[in-house]
Amino acid sequence: DAGVTQSPTHLIKTRGQQVTLRCSPKSGHDTVSWYQQALGQGPQFIFQYYEEEERQRGNFPDRFSGHQFPNYSSELNVNALLLGDSALYLCASSPGTPPGNEQFFGPGTRLTVL
Amino acid sequence: AQKITQTQPGMFVQEKEAVTLDCTYDTSDQSYGLFWYKQPSSGEMIFLIYQGSYDEQNATEGRYSLNFQKARKSANLVISASQLGDSAMYFCAMREGGSSNTGKLIFGQGTTLQVKP
After folding, report:
1. What is residue A97's predicted lDDT score, i.e. its pLDDT?
2. What is the per-residue pLDDT for B3?
């Protein structure tokens, strides 16, 4: 039983570019949440997708957008990259309704913006 | 607003000894969940233990136990018989509760644990 998977593992972009990160949830989970973790900090909630819709959003600008596909996998898109977007991006999956006590994370995508 | 506070940036423990990592939280919700995660240098967030706000017993998972003191709003993690592989960053997190429960987690700043041989 595969856990949460994310791709790519590492990514280097330059300021102003756009990036797409991908996540496949754990089998049986239909909800995907995205978090940003800056170096030395705790993860910060970006948004959550359930039934292909954004269910909740954290305090992030519109440059951060996402999508969920019918197979529950998800993408995180960041436009007009800034140096401050350099971080580890974590995807977490959980059962949708109710979320329950399961919140399993993937290995993360480490984004570096130069 | 919900908040998690971890006041120990770094901790040292001798191998085979027990260690307690502190976590306090602030919430006005009656229903909430508390989580502890371990994050090795590889970056993956590994789930350790969960405590629900209505659980009367303290949660335990192998060498991990959660010392839940609801009145004091604390949820400390106790690791017994520390091993070298326990060296990592540890995060305390809270899931918002109530009717709008979506499972969003709020994390503390983390505590770096180093186990000495």
Report:
1. 63
2. 93
* Distance, first Cα to last Cα, chain A: 37
Given CA atoms A95, A55, A90, B6 in this order, what sign does their dihedral have? negative
Q: How far apart are CA B15 and CA B99, in angstroms?
A: 44
Q: Phi-psi region for residue A40, left (φ > 0), alpha (ψ -120 to 50) or beta?
A: left
B33 close to A (CB below 8 A): yes
The mean of the pLDDT values for chain B is 92
Residues of chain A contacting B42 with CB distance shorter than 8 Å: 107
Does B109 contact A98 at a Cβ distance shorter than 8 Å? no
pLDDT tens per residue, range B48-78: 999 999 888 999 999 999 999 999 999 999 9
Size of interface A-B (CB pairs under 8 A): 65
Q: Measured between CB atoms, which of A31, A42, A94 is closest to B107?
A: A42
Per DSSP, the residues of chain A read ----EEE-SEEEE-TT--EEEEEEPPTT--EEEEEEE-TTS--EEEEEEETTEEEEE-S--TTEEEEE-TTS-EEEEE-S--GGG-EEEEEEEE-SSS-TT--EE---EEEEE-
Q: Does A31 touch chain B (CB under 8 A)?
A: yes
Asked if the model's pLDDT at residue A99 lies above 70, the reply is no
Chain A hits for B108, Cβ within 8 Å = 42
The answer to whether residue B104 neighbours chain A at the CB level (below 8 Å) is yes
